[in-house]
Here is the input.
Amino acid sequence: MSGWLLDTNVATLLFDSKHSKRAPEAVRRATEIVEEHGRSPISAVSLFELKRGVRRLLAEGKGARKAAELDRWLLRAEVFGLDQGRFAGWTLAADLWAAGRAHKPARVFSDADLLIVATAFQHDRVLVTGRATRDSAP
Amino acid sequence: MSLPAVDTTLVAPLDPLVLLDQLPARARADLSWARPAIQKALESLHEEPLDDERLSAATRAFFEPMPAIAAALFQHLPASDNLGLASRGMEAFRAEGFRNLDPHTRDMALDALTILSAIFARYATEVGGVALDVSTADSLKDADSLESWAASPMARAYVCLFAADKMPPSDDPARQAHAAELVGWGFLMLSSTLDQLARAGVVIDPFADEPKGDRTLRAAEALREVLDDEDLQILSEGRMRDLR
Here is the structure.
């Protein structure tokens, strides 16, 4: 394993004062990872989700300051995607999806979760989620 | 990969009012009209509403005197010192600028300046000093070019940041919030400029050389301070479930 990948729900604990109180251990681990790694390692899916948040904050009239603060945090994230090597990460995601469906009983994930897990596999990283810290190795 | 056509002189985040001060007395006198025109443009952004129409008009008015200022500057300064002038100007602005703002807003403004400096450094590296001459700023004499530049996120970012820098210091929360909005818009427009450049194949990471971790955590802390429960709910609604 070459590092960590923060799921969106863990990455956002770093700035979510409401939910971070309920998960102090996850906040502590995410903080350690950022200190160790230098940046917040997230997937392109998390970037997409949070960029939607930036746009929504503006559209809802919440002001440029809030949207800019979120954008400022995102500019310091290290973002991992699925496109490298002839989009091999997407094929990996398809394999995971198929393996989940073939499992008895079938294991069905949301597309967001599936793509984030595939990103962790693709980059040989340990995925840190809100529910548990689990090794992403097959 | 070639860079998109952006005016290199204008990429340098230099305060035109400071540039005017550097000119000999005679040149300053010839340009006596420029200072009030720039100040008026910036002051127009100190009032509500901070909307697109106001920003558009202020940006045009702010850049209108630039060809004349650049011409005078290049006439009185050695051309070989153009890049040095830009570097010194940026350093001075970083050290002295935005001191009228509250510490959190100043911190964001300095981050915005880091982005501007990173873009400028990339252009300076790629094109060298040769492009930094009067002809580039001269292009803004043409009304269509001025209009086009004034519509760009980078030009608007400049004007928002300089307008924030020129706001009188105030303890009034409403005025502080207005200054923070100006800086916020400036930052967002620079982020948009980075995206535009990335789409053209020029990827710039403005914070690549930062000390490990602490700035990322500070950015998270700043974000934690401004987001309320309703904002967090909005962010939560941005989460992705299934693609179809």
Summary: Residues 128-134 of chain B have pLDDT under 50 and may be disordered. The two ends of chain B are 36 Å apart (CA to CA).
